[in-house]
Amino acid sequence: MPFTDDSAAGSFSAPPKIELIDTPGGSNRLVRVIEDFTFTEADNAAVWAAPSGSIVNGASIPRVLWSFVGSPFTGDYVYASIVHDVACDARTRPWRDVHYMFYQACLAGGTTRLRAKLMYLAVRNFGPRWPNPGPAEHFSFGMRAAALAAGPAISPEGQARYLRRAQAYLAAHGGQASIEATDVYASRPE
Length: 190
What we know:
Layout: E1 10-12, E2 18-21, E3 30-33, E4 37-41, E5 47-50, E6 55-56, H1 63-69, H2 78-90, H3 95-108, H4 113-126, H5 156-173, H6 179-187
Antiparallel strand pairs: 1-4, 2-3, 3-6, 4-5
Helix pairs in contact: 2-3, 3-4, 4-5, 5-6
């Protein structure tokens, strides 16, 4: 798997070295990072680390997305899933930055731009959220990030409907589809 497919998005330090953790009677979805692994964003040189010993399970990627793109440890976004999980667990950076890093890491890992947009919209809208580690973030609508810390309460059916609409919009508009236009279209009532 290429790890610098879109070098304009960023680059990974190397392919991750991981081991599956056997959890008898469990889902066996736990993975331990056995060698330091990083993703560096191209536009601002921000480094996102998954230190040796980190344990990830793909839970930062909303389960509803799995039916559209597969589980977190399959496909061309495995590398992105690892650094995203660690960043979501650490919560030392704003959730919006963490989810946007996931988009950039997906591109760097070889995910197509349209698929990366769909995945980004899923984690941004349905993934974990937390209060900013610094000053409160203000949105254009006057809301504060702390008010959204629990994430929006949207049923799995509503999430799937949103993702189907986003997927259809991206397919119809191809590379011209912006993330925000896709979000607006997918959010509209049917």
